Amino acid sequence: MSASAILKLQAAGFSTEQVTALAELIDSQAATKADLEAAKHELGAQIGGVKSELGARIDGVKSDLEAAKHELGAQIGGVKSELGARIDSVKSDLEAAKYELGGRIDSLEHSLGSKIDAADHRLDMKITRLDGEFALVKWMLGFTLAFEVALFYKLFLH
Fold first, then answer.
1. What digits encode the pLDDT tens for the residues 39-60?
2. Measured by CB atoms within 10 angstroms of the end CB, which terminus of the chain is less buried, N or C?
3. Coil vs helix vs strand at 13
4. What is the dihedral of CA 107, 113, 114, 115, to 10 degrees?
5. Rounded to an integer, what distance in angstroms lies between the CA atom of residue 98 and that of residue 152?
6. 10, 16 in Cβ contact below 8 A?
7. Is the pLDDT of residue 32 over 90?
C-alpha cells in the first residue's frame, strides 16, 4: 500500500494498527509485477511444451493419414484393375453370345423363309387348281342353263 493511501486512511479515522493490518493483508494478497512476470514465463514454458507435444502428435497423425491414404489408393487401384478385368471378360462373353445368337437368328430366318416359300408355293398350287375347278363349274353351269333354256323354249313355245 502506498504512503499516501495510509495517511488518507489515518486521516479518515482509522488507527495505525488497522491501517498497518490492512496494508499487510493487501501486500500478502496482491501480486507484484515480478510475480506476474514469473507466472507469465512459467505459463509460456508450459504452453511451449504443450505446443511441441501437440505438434508432434499432429505430425504423427498426418503421417498415419498419409500411410492410410497410400494404402487405400493401392487397394482402390487393385479393385479397379480387378473390376476392369471382370468388365472385359463380361464384354467378351457378351460379344461371343451376340455372334452365337446372330448365327442362330440367321439360321432361323433362313429356315422360316424356306418354310414360308414352301407354304406360298402350295397355296399358289391350290389357287391354280381352284381357278381351274371354278372355270369348269362356270362352263357346267352355263351348259346346264343353256340346256334348260332350250327345254323351256321347246316345251312352251312349240
1. 889 999 999 999 999 999 999 9
2. C
3. coil
4. 110
5. 78
6. yes
7. no
